[in-house]
Every structure is written in C-alpha cells, then in structure tokens.
Amino acid sequence: MNTKELRTFARSRIFSTFEERAAKGGFDRGLWREMAESGVVGMALDKRYGGGGAGMGEFVECVSLLAGEGLDLGLTLSLIDHVVLCAYPLQVFGSKWLKERYLPPLCKGDCIGAAAVSEDDGGGDPKRMRSSAARAGDGYTLSGVKGPVTNAPVADLFLVVAATDPGAGKDGLSAFLVERAAGVRVEELGLGFLPTSPHGRVILDGVRVSADHLLGEEGWGHEKISRSLFIWERSALIPVVVSYLERWHHLVVSSLDPEGISPDLRTLLARRKVELTAYRALGSRLLELTFGEAENGRERLELLLFFGKTLPEWVESMRAAVEEARVPLDETLRAMDRDLRLLEVGGSLLDWQFQKLLF
After folding, report:
1. Is 233 a catalytic residue?
2. Within a 10 A sphere around the Cβ of 70, how many other Cβ atoms?
3. CA distance 179 to 89
4. Considering 233, 246, 316, 331, which one is annotated as catalytic?
5. Quick one: pLDDT at residue 245?
6. Level-2 CATH architecture, domain 113-219
7. What CATH architecture is 3-108?
8. What pTM does this model have?
9. Terminal CA-CA length for the chain
C-alpha cells in the first residue's frame, strides 16, 4: 500500500469508524485483519515468515501516517505494541521453531500479541517483580499477575517476563511466549481514555509452558529483553505521537477565527508548530539510533529522556492556549485531547526508568 492508499485507508476505514468502534468497546478484529492484508501489520518483519521485510523505520513511518490521518491513537498504540513488544522481539530473540510457529499468524493478523512485563505494584522494576517461572519437568510453571497490559483482552499470545531464579534479582528473570490457554485469565481494565486500545490485567495461575517457549536463554529477561522492549516501544511510539500532535495542532488552529487571534497567541502557536517540526527530525534520529545502523546508546537515551519530559509539557502548553483562546472543540478534538493522557500516565515512573538507564 503506497502513501496515497494508506492515507485513504486511514480516513475511510479508521477515522470514519472511530466513534462507532469506541462506543462498541473499541477493538475491531475485522479492521485489524484489513490492516494486516494491507501489509502494515507485518511490514517490519522478515519475509521468510510472511512479513514485508521493510524494517522498523518504514513501519513507524506508516503507523505515523495512520495516526495523523486516522486520528485513532489507541489503535496505533495497539499496533505498535503488537509488533514492537511481541512479534519483533520474537524475531530477534526467538528460536527458529518459535519464529516459524508464531510469526506467520502474527503477520497475517490471525494472532494478536501483547507483552506482559509490568506489574501493578512495581511497574517494570526487576527488583520488585513477583511473577515466577518454576522448573517443572521438561518445562516451566508460570504464576503471577501482570498489568496493565496493552491488548490483553484480545491477545492470543503473550510475551511474559518472570523470575526463573528469584534469588538472582534482575539476572534471574527470563522471558517466555505464552498462548492464551488454560491458566491464563484476563481482567479488562478501563483506562478512561484510548477506548480503541484494550488494556487488562493478566493472571497466570500455574500456567504450564514447555521449555521450547523460552525466549532466548534463562536470565535474558531483563538486560536483553525487557530493557530492549522499553527502548524499542518508546522509540517507535514517539514519532507516531508527534504525527498525532501535528494533526491536533492543525485542527486547533483551523478552529480559530483569524481576526480574533491576539499577537501573543499567534506567536505561541507558531512556536508550537516549529517545535513539532524539530521533534519530527529528532524522532527520525531516534529511530535511526534504535533500529538503524547508527550506534550511540547515550544519545538515544538522552533523546528518550528529552521526549519523556518535553511532549507532556508541549501538550499542557497547547491546552492552556486552547482554554485561553476559548477554542470551540468538536468531538474529534475532545477525543484527541482525552487520548493524549497517554503522555501523562506513569510520568514519574518513566522518568525514573530513563534515569536508571542513563546513569
């Protein structure tokens, strides 16, 4: 699907159906399969397993276009997490057998992926992770509670991080691919925003998995896998959010009476627009540092820290301007503003995690 076709798809199939999907509970498997048939879902994955082989940069560019034209931040978050937190790490860390078994249905849209890493009382802090994976014969028995997990209520496959050696701290964590089967229970969580991205708590009650469902090796759960997931997701999501903010800014400005804009407000809106242009360039640099051939770990983490602080501040500045100017907000603008709460949730925890990675 070329850019023109993708833009048309976003407007005709995503934007036009957003209110109906949100009212019905949000997630539409039919629409998900349409995205898979268009090639977007498997775009970043290896052709050998049914993917497009295009790489993560092109995938994020397409998802950014979907966000900017479809105006559905929830759906794009679900898509990012399906690929970046489940399918892509499977491709990077998984055995040949695991890839052959799970990547084709993940690419086709027949299987929806999720990552069950964080826990209610400890986030992603490895020192506070309570979920366990005890050796049992030729496999493991997984127990614990994970959440909140994006896509959990609709997911067919979970990437789960749990302790195989609780006494070893972060070095005792391992990652597994766990199918939605006996012993896996999901409690849906209502966030109050992102209605088209289902979230839930995953309860693992003595779930048996065979040893061949271990992702990589024992002990890889934190340093190699969880840490990568954290960086990959944020690096991919930031350009998508910037595209969404560009559209939000455009719609806000379009709602204003040109004759009634004060010089100060005009200047502020112009500054916010220029900042978004800079953020787009920095987001491209971040993608290159994360998924491309450029290697500078510190610059990448500094950019992540920068965006973690700056994007919420940008949104608050725009909200203040909208309130001061008494911009008439239609349902689209109200829904977009609501979903931007994504940038506020867990802000202090994210800052702490970034600082840990930097220093």
Report:
1. yes
2. 26
3. 16
4. 233
5. 98
6. Beta Barrel (2.40)
7. Orthogonal Bundle (1.10)
8. 0.93
9. 42
